[in-house]
Amino acid sequence: MPFEVPGESFPGSAFYYLEETPLLVDVAGWDAPVGVIGVAARASATEDAEPPLAAPPLRISGSDRDHARAQQCMAQAIYYEAASESDAGQRAVAQIVLNRVAHPSYPRTVCGVVYQGSERSTGCQFTFTCDGALARTPSRSGWARASRHAREALSGLVYAPVGTATHYHTLAVNPYWASSLQSVGVIGAHIFYRWPGAAGRPAAFSAGYAGGEPSAARARSSVPAAPLPNDIPVVAPLPDLPDGRTPAAPSPPAAGTQAAPAAEIMPQSGDVREEYANSGRWITRP
């Protein structure tokens, strides 16, 4: 080749001519989305002047444990809600989780959003957290795909077609709350909704990520609080004897009740009848 000069080239030198000049990373706009996929949803299809509705990108900050737990919860939501969906369908579910984290009406952590209401048998925000679906082991390929989309979403990728939607349901059902929200559109097997009015505008998504991710597991039901010190009954002091001695405290009651005699609890059918009293003995001469 023209650039190969005897004595000045070596095996592999062609790569130095073919490699493009590396570009420096521009740190300006670090809080902007790393990428926007699709066309942003609009409030009305007939109003071209209406600005696109898209929630701001969310970047997970915090400890390594926060990152690991957020990744786990996001991958679970994507897999158990949209395992059979296309890439668009899985990204849409991930964007719903991010939109809720950014909205002040929901928890400010990824796992908090995904497992909200999971302590109840019904009424959980994501059905898979309370219907026993987590007992099903995910497939290796399906989990890898869901994890990839989870990493993209948590690194700042925005799936614009979802816009500011915070709700969705499958096309097979018609929940009671659907009529109170504004439809954004259908993606895959799900239809997506946003809050009406100011609550569904991008400016409403102002809550920042709080960190301190809870564990990626079903929340436990609340237990009764321990009694306050003032509620503990006070034991009256023991009276003093005339000679100044202190009476001995009564012995504590036995931990269990005394067992009833065997004759009282055993059936009487085991008694040997008189005609069979010698059964099993050697026969003797009369």
SSE diagram, text form:
Blueprint: H1 14-18, E1 35-37, H2 64-82, H3 87-102, H4 110-114, H5 140-154, E2 157-159, E3 167-170, E4 182-187, E5 190-194, H6 262-265
Parallel strand pairs: 1-2
Antiparallel strand pairs: 3-5, 4-5
Helix pairs in contact: 2-3, 2-5, 3-5
Short description:
By secondary structure, the chain is an alpha+beta fold. 22% of the residues lie in helices and 7% in strands.
Task: Give the low-pLDDT segments.
Answer: 15-34, 42-52, 222-235, 255-269
User: Briefly, what CATH class of the domain at 60-204?
Assistant: Mainly Alpha
Classified in CATH, the superfamily of the domain at 60-204 is Cell wall hydrolase SleB, domain 1
CATH architecture of the domain at 60-204, by name, is Orthogonal Bundle
CATH topology call of the domain at 60-204: Arc Repressor Mutant, subunit A
Assembly type: single chain
**Helix vs. strand class:** alpha+beta
Protein name: Cell wall hydrolase
InterPro entries: Cell_wall_hydrolase_SleB, SleB_dom1
Pfam family, one: Hydrolase_2
Keywords: Hydrolase
Comma- or semicolon-separated keywords:
6 helices; single chain; 286 residues; 5 strands; two-stranded parallel sheet; elongated; Arc Repressor Mutant, subunit A; three-stranded antiparallel β-sheet; alpha+beta
Your description of this structure?
With about 290 residues, this protein is of the alpha+beta class. It has a domain at about 60-205: Cell wall hydrolase SleB, domain 1 (Arc Repressor Mutant, subunit A, Orthogonal Bundle), CATH 1.10.10. It has six helices and five strands. The chain has helices spanning about 15-20, 65-80, 85-100, 110-115, 140-155, 260-265, and strands at about 35, 155-160, 165-170, 180-185, 190-195. A three-stranded antiparallel beta sheet has the order 3-5-4, covered by helices on one side. The chain has a two-stranded parallel ribbon with strand order 1-2. Strand 4 and strand 5 form a beta hairpin. Helix 2 (about 65-80) crosses helix 5 and helix 3 (about 85-100) packs across helix 5 (about 140-155).
